[in-house]
Backbone:
C-alpha cells in the first residue's frame, strides 16, 4: 500500500559526506513523521534523525552537528545530509514514515524502506 525507497548509500572515506534520499509512494493522505534509523551488524536499530510534520526535528546525540534531516512535503520525501562521516556511522540506514492513508484523524501506520548500506572506511 505504501512503499519507501531509499537511495544514496555507498562507501566513503572518513570525513567525507553522503546524502540519503527517501521517497514514499502509494496510498497516502498525510505523513506525520519521516525519519532515518540505522542498524549495524549485531546492534539494535536506532533512531538517527526524524522530522515531524510541522517542523520539529530530533537527532541522535552521536550525529548532532554532522547530520541534517530535511523534508519535501510535496514529494513525500525525506533527506539526510551526512557530513564528517566516521567509521562508527557504518550501518544499514532505513527510512521510516508514519502514514495516514485516508484522513487526518485516521489510524497511522509505520512503514519502512528496504535499507541502504553506508560504509565509512577509516
Residues:
Amino acid at each position: 500500500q505504501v512503499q519507501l525507497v531509499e537511495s544514496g548509500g555507498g562507501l566513503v572515506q572518513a570525513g567525507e559526506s553522503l546524502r540519503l534520499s527517501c521517497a514514499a509512494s502509494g496510498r497516502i493522505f498525510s505523513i506525520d513523521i519521516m525519519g532515518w534509523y540505522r542498524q549495524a551488524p549485531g546492534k539494535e536499530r536506532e533512531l538517527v534523525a526524524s522530522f515531524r510534520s510541522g517542523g520539529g526535528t530530533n537527532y541522535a546525540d552521536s550525529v548532532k552537528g554532522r547530520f541534517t534531516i530535511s523534508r519535501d512535503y510535496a514529494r513525500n520525501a525525506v533527506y539526510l545530509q551526512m557530513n564528517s562521516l566516521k567509521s562508527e556511522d557504518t550501518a544499514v540506514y532505513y527510512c521510516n514514515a508514519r502514514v495516514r492513508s485516508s484522513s487526518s484523524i485516521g489510524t497511522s501506520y509505520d512503514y519502512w524502506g528496504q535499507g541502504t548500506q553506508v560504509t565509512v572506511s577509516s
In short: DSSP finds no helices and eleven strands in the chain. The two ends are 40 Å apart (CA to CA). The CA atoms of residues 5 and 121 lie 25 Å apart.
